[in-house]
Design goal:
The chain is 56% helix and 11% strand. By secondary structure, it is mainly alpha-helical. It is elongated, with a radius of gyration of 29 Å.
Length: 194
């Protein structure tokens, strides 16, 4: 029993020998140094490793949203292929765009507005007449480019939110661990800093 008491006594934190403001400033400084070391992977590399792994998964998820281009020149050539969309287990269907769709957008986008509609899990474009633009000859209209960019970057919302949530969770775990190490001796200070 005496050995157990000695063991518990040895686990007690050292008594504070400094003035309270100096002790608090010292603990905050050490906490900031430990957090900086975690972020820059100087000592503890877990945070950086977890973030790198998460960013690699995020990059892979974004690359999976790349459009599926087919070489069909005419919608009648390959109707079934143009209606197919690749389904991913963890995200929305990836639209299949054929050359006809791209040409139609490039040739007519200055005069029309395209809206997106899902049919058999594929994207089809329906247009309505609009004002004429002043594009240069043999130049892809800026609106056509932004149309396709907005269509495919809209698929990035889910992977972005998942990446942010995981990074936030990893950072919160690291912060909680460091707060416990540096401030747990003083419960009120720990609660205030947290």
């Amino acid at each position: 029993m005496l050995d157990r008491c000695r063991q518990e006594f040895s686990e007690l934190p050292n008594p504070v020998t400094k003035e309270p403001p100096a002790e608090i400033a010292d603990r905050i400084s050490k906490f900031c140094d430990a957090f900086r070391s975690s972020v820059y992977a100087i000592g503890d590399k877990d945070l950086a490793r977890n973030h790198r792994r998460q960013y690699a998964e995020f990059k892979e998820s974004i690359l999976k949203t790349a459009p599926q281009f087919t070489s069909s020149l005419n919608p009648e050539d390959d109707d079934e292929a143009s209606m197919a969309a690749e389904h991913t287990d963890d995200g929305p269907p990836i639209p299949t765009i054929d050359l006809w769709d791209v040409r139609k957008v490039i040739e007519e986008y200055g005069m029309i507005t395209f809206s997106e509609r899902c049919y058999n899990s594929a994207y089809h474009f329906y247009c309505t007449r609009r004002a004429v633009g002043w594009e240069l000859p043999n130049h892809v209209p800026f609106k056509a480019t932004t149309h396709f960019l907005e269509l495919f970057t809209s698929l990035w919302r889910q992977p972005s939110n998942e990446c942010f949530s995981e990074i936030f969770r990893n950072l919160s775990d690291t912060m909680s661990r460091l707060l416990k190490i540096h401030f747990m001796q003083f419960k009120q200070l720990h609660g205030h800093v947290r």
